[in-house]
Amino acid sequence: DLRKQARQLENELDLKLVSFSKLCTSYSSTRDGRRDRYSSDTTPLLNGSSQDRMFETMAVEIEQLLGKLTGVNDKMAEYTNSAGVPSLNAALMHTLQRHRDILQDYTHEFHKTKANFLAIRERENLLGSVRKDIESYKSGSGVNNRRTELFLKEHEHLRNSDRLIEETISIAMATKENMTSQRGMLKSIQSKMNTLANRFPAVNSLIQRINLRKRRDSLILGGIIGICTILLLLYAFH
Predict the structure, then answer these.
(1) Confidence band (pLDDT; 50, 70, 90) for 132?
(2) Residue of 206 and 86 predicted with greater confidence
(3) Is residue 107 part of a domain?
(4) 92 located within any domain
């Protein structure tokens, strides 16, 4: 029963997290499209607040599901540690660990998506205020179109710079992960080399003993051959 509950909650969490991720992905593009489509600031702000409310609602629902799944995992842990199930303890521990890993992955994905959404919303609010200032300056101050176009181009350059910075950060994170992986490989190779280096003295000692034994056997064999030769010569002369 606990496993069925855990699987049901995991399925619900998976669907919720997919929708949550889609909301985060479409947030920026939706607000950009609505700003380009409408000249008034009323409609985008209302739609943005609607998306914010949807974000808060989905975040609360996902947190509740994570809490329920944590409670089910705790109950499974209590059942695993209880008396009367020693023969199935290993299998139950494996099942419990798998569900814990799934819970940890879902929790990590939720916090990551939530952080990304908040960062995008903060950036969009900042860009929205900049756009509003530009529009008010353009309509209220009576400056010529040439100057307004320069401001808009500068704003577009800032947005492109922001995208380039994000791409650079992504490349840096990937490089860091690769360097960490390579460092692990180098540590493994170094440990193997140290193991071989520690074994070499014993191998050298063994080879020296074998050589000494070969020399002794050669001396004994040469002595026996010499004695036999002398005896044969004495016998031949007599």
Answers:
(1) low
(2) 206
(3) yes
(4) yes
Cα–Cα distances (Å) from 64 to 6, 144, 174, 229, in that order, read 14, 55, 33, 101
User: Residue 121: pLDDT above 60?
Assistant: yes
Q: Is 1 helix (H, G, I), strand (E, B) or coil?
A: coil
Q: Domain count of the chain?
A: 1
Six-digit token string for 37: 């489509």
User: Model confidence over 66-83: pLDDT tens digits?
Assistant: 898 888 888 888 877 765
Residue 75: inside a domain: yes
- The pLDDT value recorded for residue 38 is 43
Confidence of residue 58 (pLDDT cuts 50, 70, 90): confident
CA distance 141 to 180: 55
Please check whether residue 127 is in contact with residue 159, taking contact to mean a CB–CB distance below 8 angstroms. yes
Separation between Cα atoms, residue 33 and residue 40, nearest integer Å: 13
Query: Residue 16: how many CB atoms within 10 A of its CB?
Result: 19
Whole-angstrom Cα distance, residue 98 to residue 74?
Answer: 13
Question: How do residues 29-44 score in pLDDT, each as one tens digit?
Answer: 555 555 544 444 444 4
**Which stretches of the chain are assigned E, i.e. beta strand?**
none
Distance CA 63, CA 52 (A): 16
> Can you give the C-alpha Rg of the chain in angstroms?
38
Does any domain span residue 174?
A: no
